[in-house]
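Morning. Coffee machine broken again, so started the prediction first thing and wrote up yesterday's gels while waiting. Chain of 351 residues, entered below exactly as on the submission form.
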Amino acid sequence: MERNLMKGNEAIAEAALRTGCKCFFGYPITPQTEISAYLSKKMPKEGGVFLQAESEIAAINMVLGASASGVRVMTSSSSPGISLKAEGISYIAGSDLPCVIINVQRGGPGLGGIQPSQADYWQATKAIGHGDFHVLVYAPCSVQEMVDTVTKAFDMADSYRMPVIILADGLLGQMMEPVTFPEKKTELPEKPWATNGHGNKRKHNIINSLYLQPDALENSVKNRFERYEELKANHAQAEAYLYEDADIIVAAYGATARIAKSAVNLARESGIKAGLFRPVTLWPFPVKEINEACKNAHTVLCCEMSMGQMIDDVKLALNCSKPVGFFGRTGGIIPKPSEILEEIKKTGGNA
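Came back before lunch.
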């Protein structure tokens, strides 16, 4: 299979085309603009629709309309742009529509900076919009995994009729790595619920998120949460590394997990029994998997490019059974393996 050296943002865009994405609506913002730039050139040639909207708000509502018609549709942005999309994401979730949303995170709050960050964890997993709903959140750690995750994200969005977020960051979006792409999808799932013309062969389909009767809205929300429970049971994903005999487990996701893995290897060379736990899905958080990874460890160390947004999920998943420390850099500063190693030594690893 041919390998291509590509920037992360452009690899995401190419993967979306190959998995049957036919519409993209977005607005430029650093550090994700290459996704839009790439698709603006290639999507029309693939028979799709590319449109640079007048704002992030307009873009997400175009996503809602395109998804309602049954096509695969994607949008991308970075941190403050995702905040502007929040209302539309809630409308999409309330309408039970599938779509893929890419967040190539930058530092915040506010306009912050354009350097890599992981400070949108809470936004993605806890507060992506108003109301009772969740979105499926993936956190890839390499350009290849971003490519693979795009296909999975579209498939899961269609299967569960919900928005899926791929939570990347400026580091993954801008780095170049060799990747391989899947074959182009030629067959996509049928969507009998779509509002794409009925030809007098079926009843009208209606896409709506407004329920004036409280009982009807409650039933709609409860049905959605039944699907969420199925996601929790069957689709939480994680990677564990050198955990079997580990005294200390470093928990990290995305690009930070790669740095943490180097720190774990350095710790092992120093005689410290360290291991790594990397959640691949941030929602649902892989509860069973982290308990298995930490079963022999006495301490957990969370490492993030934020002020510590994953800590509570780690503590809750472990039922507060182990002490959980934290090391992070924020503002767009990327942690170094040597810094994490020093924190491993301070937190509880003994040579």
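The chain is about 40% helix and 20% strand. Going to sketch it on the whiteboard this afternoon.
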